[in-house]
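In this section we walk through a basic example: taking a raw amino acid sequence and producing a predicted 3D structure, encoded as discrete structure tokens. The instruction is simple. Fold the sequence below.
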Amino acid sequence: MSEKKLRAMRQEIDKINEQLIGLLAQRLKIGEELAKLKKKLGKEIRDEARERTIIDSARKLARERGLDPSFVEGLMRLIIAQTAGVERERIGAVGMWAKVQKVFANYHAQLNVARLLFKYGLRVREDGEIACGDIRIPAVQIAQEAGVDRRVVDATAQTILKNKGVRDIFTDLEPIAYLKGVGQRLGLGVIEILPKDAAKPGIISEVTGVLAKFRISIRQAVADDPHFVPQPKLTIITDEPVKGNVIDTLRKLPSVQSVIVYS
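The resulting token sequence is shown next.
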């Protein structure tokens, strides 16, 4: 009986997870339409007053439902940041990624493949094959991850090789040994910083300055490209788990939107 009940409860959780993901997809879809309207009206992507209202309302609802307001606030900030990133992407990228988007303007599926290659540091070889360093990666594996047909991967490679502007980017990409996934098992600290505006200078300096003040050694720091990732973040791997007083100090920094701690 207990095993049967356990399976039933897990099935119920799976259904709720599916509903949550469906609602998130719906929210992001509305965000795309909102981006178009904001561009037409000449309005900025981020509206701090509106976001503050959303956060205050979420905290109030959390208390009414018996949830931790801080947890709900963190979740809402993640959603807001992701939505704003998608809106910014729809309005138009800048810098290097704007050049990539222009090349793939009429090939949305190929753009998804290019984004995947950039994310993992996979390069396009002169023969049109995809490689991680010198190791060839089968096109079918790239296609599965990107959710496209294998032929789209081949077409993406050819598009890149024919356009010097992006060819110089994608033929020399390199992967890195990212410690985020193994940090906790190694006894390291793993924190993610979501900035208010990742394109503004000084964020890394502010964060590392706080860690230096508390005499915390940094093993690795990885910052997402704000013009490439819808929700850019700064991931810091430290020699040891970061304590609560350090996290509180980081959250008070003017450039920081939210701090996520993996423990």
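Looking at the output, two observations stand out. The longest strand covers residues 189-195. The CA atoms of residues 195 and 256 lie 4 Å apart. In the next section we compare this with other chains.
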